[in-house]
């Protein structure tokens, strides 16, 4: 059996940590969650020199305080899992600021390696770093890497292995905090060393520092332990003492001392031959962030994003739809007609899941475009540009990224709202994300826009829906932040990473991960949902028909038209009398004022609660069985041909638009509801979300349909 | 040499300033320190951003600060004359 080494990568956001992780592990990655919390845990593995090296990409953090979930997760992982080696990934062009986290990692664990990443950028900016000297001053091995060009990764693994084997071990430097603070630390450490609770688990010096910093989490933990109260009393005394001497809280003093240590080391080991005051990024920013052009350019980028997705995916979707038709025909010929098996495979499996899968190109392209914006650095600019606008929502620019991710899928978007620091802003963001039209709703729009709107305005109709979602989100956010969570939000601070040309591999890994997640969803939840719907629409199996169709068919075997007419009527009656039909009919009257009191759509909308992708799948199942020729007519044509009892068409552009608005706004899907519950820790918020969104959807569709009818936009 | 202490929000673009104090709660102060905004550090103001957020450079890191935050950060502008 191979020996195993666990390596944790820690570093600031934008330090190139994830690129390095991708370089080290390639596609052998696994994304999960840290136990109990919803912070993403990325793991990968690499085999090197007979070792099986497990690499963990920790969340990007600037520090190890208890104020942010990411930082808590990072430090708890280091304490509880005790990885064999911790690689501190440093942006070499931003040496001093990046090393701040390193000093804290060094206090927490003795097995740190510094990866001096982006060494090439640093050199271009005029930095000269004496690695050997810096390594000596920190007492930590240093490897220079250029993750984007795959330089230094081999070397990093080499040093990891030798550190693990106990070779070349250096004595980590200890940051000294000055006599007064050191005295208090000594006093605390003496008390802590007598306490069995801390034995072996926490490095004592680190714990003492945290107690002086008045760290909420650790103070609470120590307090609960045996003799803990005495320790906490001492910590309070020490803090008060230091505060009277220095006139500032110990946490600030400790931070200053850390920077003092770093700048001391850097002034010896790092020189700057020239200063580039305005980098390329600054030049680009002077245009992209300018008051006059910032917002228009941003809107154009967003528009281009959706154009790119829709235009490019259209032909691929068409091919897939054709392929799906062939597959249905083929299976129809091959499978025997026993116990509804054929109906199950063609309508349930091929029809339902197939209708979902043909939209994979749309989803992939959207994720690809989002990954491009993220990796290039423009996403952060979006937050910056939108900050002022977000203020009108009572939110900050920071909430913008989670909201825009909502266009991909609400589930990861709600999870990413964790980057919003204040609880109030976070809840508001979570509650409005469902209005951001996720990719799963796109198939519904694609179907109805394709069927009822000419191609030249298709893009604009789609854009108007997304825009409406945003407008509703803004209005709701204002209501929430004013009435539900009155008070001030936390200030807005975020880093603007330098612009980078995204690498193909990086884009591929990002996009791939999300597409896989989508397919898994389609394969499990949606398949289950479609099967439930198939069951509901096919059972009870033996229906009491209004007339004896079989007898009538047998009476006129030569009149082909009559036979197919009868078969069709028999089928529709069967579905109408099925469980699904009953559910749909019960709901349909409530949809009448919205224009689409069609029980099939009502069934689709009900199924859509499981996942929005299902809606199209259900309509596919329900309409294909109710239409003359199963294979030659597409779903679009079927919808266009639906008529009421009086012969008037059910669907025309206004009804389609009203329906799309309803789909845009009504209840979030099960996965989203579940994640809202998980993220907020209470059922209160998901329930509020379901009630609020559905009520709003009904009212909005009502206004649009009734208003449109009054304006003469009817059939 | 004239030393004026002003909120960051009223500094004009392109100036170099020294950070004097950060208002607000402990959480946000520690967060800013982690990002490279500690008392006594030199920062450069890139874009005061009108009524929106402003961009500053600390080390080689560009940070966007909301208007409200920029008002709570006091800095000293070092101007010759």
Blueprint of the fold:
The complex is a heterodimer of chains A (715) and B (81).
Chain A: E1 3-11, H1 17-25, E2 29-33, E3 40-48, E4 51-57, H2 69-81, E5 85-91, H3 95-108, E6 112-117, H4 119-124, E7 127-129, H5 131-138, E8 142-144, H6 153-164, H7 179-193, H8 204-212, H9 216-224, H10 228-246, H11 250-269, E9 270-272, H12 280-288, H13 294-334, H14 341-357, H15 360-376, H16 378-391, H17 400-405, H18 410-416, H19 423-432, H20 442-452, H21 455-484, E10 493-496, H22 504-538, H23 549-555, H24 560-576, H25 579-591, H26 599-607, H27 614-625, H28 635-641, H29 653-665, H30 670-680, H31 684-710
Parallel strand pairs in A: 1-4, 1-5, 5-6, 6-8
Antiparallel strand pairs in A: 2-3, 3-4, 7-9
Chain B: E1 2-7, E2 16-22, H1 26-35, E3 42-47, E4 54-58, E5 61-65, H2 67-72, E6 73-79
Detailed description of the structure:
The complex is a heterodimer of chains A (715) and B (81). In chain A, 63% of the residues lie in helices and 8% in strands. Chain A is built from 31 helices and 10 strands. In chain A, a hairpin with a 6-residue loop joins strand 2 and strand 3. By secondary structure, chain B is α+β, with helices and mostly antiparallel strands. Chain B has a 6-stranded antiparallel β-sheet with strand order 1-6-2-3-4-5. At the A-B interface, helix 3, helix 11, helix 12, helix 16 and strand 10 of A face helix 1, strand 5 and helix 2 of B.
